[in-house]
Specification:
Layout (H helix, E strand, L loop, with lengths): L31 H9 L2 E5 L7 E5 L6 E3 L1 E2 L13 E5 L5 E6 L10 E4 L1 H4 L5 H19 L10 E4 L4 E4 L4 E2 L4 E9 L8 E7 L8 E4 L2 E4 L6 H13 L3 E12 L4 E10 L12 E8 H8 L11 E4 L5 H11 L1
Parallel strand pairs: 1-6, 11-16, 13-18
Antiparallel strand pairs: 1-4, 2-3, 2-7, 5-6, 8-9, 9-10, 11-12, 11-14, 12-17, 15-16
Helix pairs in contact: 5-6
Length: about 325
């Protein structure tokens, strides 16, 4: 499978969750004295891992969209010193931390509780990066109170970027690579088509069906390109001819790095959906996808209205880029 120039993506900027402007300042993670002093002058993002990684956002008042609610250290929930997660420093040098705590019933003025999935595409670069990183880290800590190798209890160290047990065995946050591809027929203009699928995990609400790209995890011993070809063959029974890497983004549900591709398959091949994973897969013209993005009702062909992948996802990014190309 060779890279091909026939498949391209429009210039739509980076994926929604691939934006960040905060300096991670990793050099400070192993300096407890610096971290202690930094906490006193920091801003803190409170994320509730038990509520699916939710945090508060409010309209930032600038007309630019939503902004994360950051609080001073005196307003932050009380947690152990080692459970303060150092995210980095802002442009003006202000340290930013995250803590995992229940957000309770008290809602800040004009704020609402959301996940990265809900608003990642609406946040500015700084907040999109902060929220994505914080959600991934608090989730990882919540899932790893014990070391897999020893079974011993672990505690957070290095500003929240590692955990260690009483024997000194260390664990680091894990990021699992996955591939995702928008399959196309390579035709330019409104008649060009892409292949989208409705997965069993997202069957819909009785009236709608969510259609998205094909995706799957990279298995041990595989390259990303080999995984992509395998997933296409497994999910829709088609042979992938060419692929072009586009971009990647974190997807902290719980800790995946999505590697996004545009790919070409011969549309003369029959579609053979895997019944264990795929409810239905079909070709959509560029004109149909444009109509769906514009809010028009498009029938999926089996009596349901089509919905596309959520805007914060890299699937939506690939689809939108193909439409505007």
């Amino acid at each position: 499978m060779n890279s091909g120039s026939e498949v391209t993506v429009g210039d739509v900027g980076p994926p929604p969750l691939a934006r960040a402007s905060v300096d991670r300042a990793a050099r400070h993670r192993t300096d407890p004295r610096w971290l202690a002093r930094a906490w006193d002058r920091s801003r803190v993002l409170v994320v509730d891992s038990a509520a699916g990684g939710r945090a508060f956002v409010r309209d930032d008042g600038t007309g630019a969209g939503l902004g994360l609610v950051l609080v001073g250290p005196e307003q932050a929930p009380a947690v152990a010193v080692e459970d303060r997660i150092f995210l980095g420093t802002d442009d003006d040098g202000t340290p930013i931390f995250a803590v995992d705590a229940a957000l309770g019933a008290a809602v800040p003025d004009a704020a609402r509780l959301v996940t990265v999935r809900d608003v990642g595409h609406l946040l500015g670069d700084r907040d999109a990066g902060l929220f994505t990183t914080a959600a991934a880290l608090v989730g990882w800590h919540a899932r790893h109170p014990y070391a897999a190798s020893t079974g011993l209890a672990t505690r957070a160290v290095d500003g929240g970027w590692s955990r260690v047990d009483s024997d000194g065995a260390r664990n680091w946050p894990r990021t699992d690579p996955a591939v995702i591809a928008l399959l196309t027929d390579g035709v330019a203009g409104p008649a060009g088509r892409c292949l989208l699928a409705n997965h069993h995990a997202r069957r819909g609400d009785g009236q709608h069906r969510l259609y998205s790209c094909l995706a799957g995890f990279v298995e041990p011993g595989e390259s990303a390109e080999a995984a992509l070809a395998r997933e296409v063959a497994e999910e829709v029974g088609m042979t992938l001819s060419r692929s072009t890497y586009v971009a990647s983004q974190s997807w902290p549900f719980p800790g995946t790095l999505m590697l996004g591709y545009l790919a070409y398959v011969d549309p003369e091949q029959p579609i053979r959906p895997d019944p264990e994973e795929i409810v239905r897969a079909r070709w959509f013209s560029r004109a149909e996808v444009s109509a769906i993005l514009a809010g028009e009702r498009v029938d999926s062909g089996d009596g349901f209205v089509v919905r596309l992948a959520p805007p914060a996802s890299i699937a939506a990014y690939l689809i939108h880029g193909w439409v505007v190309d």
